[in-house]
Design goal:
This protein has helices at residues 15-20, 32-57, 75-85, 108-112, 116-128, 161-170, 176-184, 213-219, 227-235, 278-281, and strands spanning 3-4, 28-29, 61-65, 88-89, 92-95, 132-134, 140-142, 146-147, 156-160, 238-241, 244-247, 249-256, 259-266, 271-272. The protein is α+β, with helices and mostly antiparallel strands.
């Protein structure tokens, strides 16, 4: 039975699609199942295009497998390693500094923007921890927890290359650990909503249990007395996205069943694991560096 689609559901299929889906004319299908299949495919195509556009907007991305391995490494090393991962090639662990030229040990000081002794210490720690592999004339290869390519693994997050590079370039060598803290708390970041919490796989916001800054300090082995230092470290780094300066994290005052508590959000323009970026795109205003949330001063009127 040929049936007309409901008002608002009209489509304009191509001639090829008319043949493939047995569409008699614009807006008409041979069966409901054909119509549903066609619309699902169109929705998938639109979603895939939005993902590609999101990647282009952020200068591409590297995947990071969500693991607590990096909590066992000092935060400055973690920040520098995550920055290096933005130089990964597609489906290959070799690090490139551009135009097909590999990164070598002697390049680290310049690329990481650190002194030679600091670069040597970083190299030593990464080689010892199997975080980097030096194949000498072939260049430096990064651990497979970082990768670029297709994956069905659900326990991964995106590290957006363009915004991360911009943030890193604004940091001094002593501040690289601030970005490292953000990478180390990735296992605690809610996959869909970017809230640092106790149940990162929870999809419904009303059930998310935020972690206190003291809880985060404990998990990072910093000691619960370093809450102000950690908050400052995570909220002070700045990067630019679409012409606006934004914070790495924001700490938002709120109330929970445990009383007054600051909820920590990580900027999704840097790190995001979720399936639908539109869920968090709306909270971007909270990360603007002049917005006046905790960790930044509000500008005078």
């Amino acid at each position: 039975m040929i049936r007309r689609m409901k008002k608002g559901d009209m489509v304009q299929p191509s001639n090829l699609e008319k043949d493939n889906y047995q569409i008699k004319e614009d807006g008409y299908f041979v069966s409901d199942s054909q119509r549903e299949r066609y619309l699902k495919i169109k929705e998938a195509e639109a979603f895939n295009e939005s993902v590609k556009q999101n990647s282009r907007d952020h200068g591409g991305f590297t995947f990071l497998k969500i693991t607590d391995i990096l909590t066992k490494v000092d935060s400055a090393t973690v920040g520098r390693l995550a920055y290096l991962s933005t130089y990964l090639t597609f489906n290959h662990q070799l690090l490139y500094k551009g135009r097909g030229i590999p990164i070598y040990k002697e390049d680290l000081s310049k690329i990481l923007n650190v002194t030679r002794p600091t670069a040597a210490d970083f190299y030593k720690k990464c080689i010892a921890g199997n975080l980097l592999i030096d194949r000498e004339s072939s260049g430096l290869f990064i651990n497979e927890m970082f990768f670029r390519g297709e994956s069905d693994d659900e326990d991964i997050t995106r590290l957006y290359c363009g915004t991360i590079q911009d943030l890193y370039h604004r940091l001094s060598a002593k501040e690289h650990k601030h970005f490292g803290y953000a990478i180390q708390i990735i296992p605690m970041i809610n996959r869909e909503w970017n809230i640092v919490c106790n149940n990162p796989n929870e999809e419904k916001t009303k059930y998310i249990v935020p972690l206190t800054t003291a809880d985060i300090c404990s998990k990072l082995k910093m000691g619960r007395g370093h809450t102000e230092r950690l908050t400052e470290a995570l909220t002070s780094p700045i990067f630019e996205y679409e012409g606006e300066e934004q914070q790495l994290c924001v700490s938002v005052p709120g109330k929970t069943s445990r009383g007054k508590q600051n909820v920590l959000y990580v900027n999704p323009h840097l790190i995001y694991a979720g399936s639908d970026f539109t869920k968090v795109d709306g909270i971007s205003v909270a990360f603007r560096s002049n917005y006046g949330l905790m960790g930044r001063d509000q500008p005078e009127a």
